[in-house]
DNA sequence: CTGGGGAGGGGGCCC
DNA sequence: CGGGCCCCCTCCCCA
């Protein structure tokens, strides 16, 4: 994907980066973000072109472009591989309306759409030297839509699917579609009922590692005092037998061309 | 609390 | 050796 217009966006971001401004990124992201109200939950139908007819009848094909109240997102979407529209800033009206939307969506991930996790990925905030050891993970790939920065083209590409609404990975057992293959595989456990992760203490099984982790945290916090001799749930993935079940959910159908880009 | 989906990060492999 | 891609992890939000 040879997007990343050498355009001003990037330069701008570089500039921002030079200033060591995650804040700049964030604020910019914020501005754009307001336009990017994440697609409604349960929204599976992308923009019309990508995913096929599997979409449920009621899965209103409303991407983030089609906003409930009839307003529509600014046309800053990419439609074709690597074809990016030049990002544009919104005029106030747009921003306002979209802010409203954001409100409704309870801004899903903290403030910025492409939020940087708590962990200071960019350390350049304080020191200010862009190439310092602090910024050991360079994020040279900027999303034209939300100005999110990513460390690789792949991550950017993946991220962009959010904006395009494309979900290349379809579950063959239901109508769900996913942007990431891992999501699909994870989802398939819902169908298979597979729960390979078990809490040692309560014997509760989980289908996901993070579910176990979360449970474990709660479990530990809840009864730290109780358990003196026995560590609750070890952070180990496979508790007992690895999924005995043959991959009923195995990638039978390799998702339709992983974004033919 | 739990279950499920969404999203970004990071390590590793391959070309 | 670097970049692209993949897999997996972890966290967040929401029902």
From TrEMBL:
Belongs to the krueppel C2H2-type zinc-finger protein family. GO terms for cellular component: nucleus. Keywords: Isopeptide bond, Metal-binding, Nucleus, Phosphoprotein, Repeat, Transcription, Transcription regulation, Ubl conjugation, Zinc, Zinc-finger. Pfam families: zf-C2H2 (PF00096). The keyword Metal-binding applies. GO terms for molecular function: DNA-binding transcription factor activity, RNA polymerase II-specific; RNA polymerase II cis-regulatory region sequence-specific DNA binding; zinc ion binding. May be involved in transcriptional regulation. It is found in: Nucleus. The lineage of its organism: Eukaryota, Metazoa, Chordata, Craniata, Vertebrata. SMART domains: ZnF_C2H2. It comes from the Eukaryota. Residues 141-168, 169-196, 197-224 form the C2H2-type domain. Residues 87-103 have a biased composition (Basic and acidic residues). Residues 41-63, 87-113, 232-261 are annotated as: Disordered. Residues 240-261 have a biased composition (Pro residues). InterPro entries: Znf_C2H2_sf (IPR036236), Znf_C2H2_type (IPR013087). Transmembrane segments: none annotated. This is Zinc finger protein 740. The keyword Phosphoprotein applies.
